[in-house]
Amino acid sequence: MSVRAISHISLNPFLGSEIIQHFLSGCKNKEMDLPAIYLVFPLVYYGASRDGLCSSNQKSSLYEKFFKDPKKRLMLGGLEERYFYYKKLTQKSLIVGHNEMCFRVSYSVSLLETVTFKDEKNSELFDYYKAAYYLGVIFSKAETKHVLSYFGVIDDESILQGRSIV
User: What distance in Å separates the CA atoms of residue 142 and residue 1, rounded to the nearest whole number?
Assistant: First the structure.
């Protein structure tokens, strides 16, 4: 796949809403606070963390996947920059997903229609969806404030206070 094609895919809010939908499917009907959603793209679109998430399972934990081994912590380098880079795409993707009735966005985000990455035929998208799903599994086991604390990503007050963008 060419660099241009990858860029087109990664900056597409329709694909972004599908990635968020897979993330929420991994959360197993648990509503997620808005700030946690803003960590999905920086972790799923980054190759090293995506590869690590693809090797996850239902028992994986936040600590085990990202912090236990010093080598795993390296995949978090530049996370804050990626967080701010993907902020607008995350907002657009939340709006698209809300309008498409995939999930509901208010002060938190809740899934309306469950999807599974196992049904994906496109091998290039399969890993993105799988990583998003297992990130949802991992995040659903922790409180949002702990997730944000572990990753050390702080954003503006509107996101931290959970104000709706829709």
Answer: 36
Length of the chain, in residues? 166
Q: How far apart are the C-alpha atoms of 71 and 14, rounded to whole Å?
A: 33
Beta strand 103-105 with 108-111: parallel, antiparallel or unpaired? Answer: antiparallel
For residue 80, CA distances in Å to 15, 74, 83, 100, 155 come to 22, 13, 5, 29, 9
What pLDDT shows up at residue 2? 60
Q: How far apart are CA 15 and CA 156, in angstroms?
A: 25
**pLDDT at position 115:** 93
Backbone angles phi, psi at 103, to 5 degrees: -150, 165
Q: Confirm if 117 and 133 have CB atoms less than 8 A apart.
A: yes
Question: Rounded CA gap, 77 and 89, in Å?
Answer: 20
Domain ranges in the chain are 3-151
pLDDT of residue 150: 81
Mean pLDDT of the chain: 85
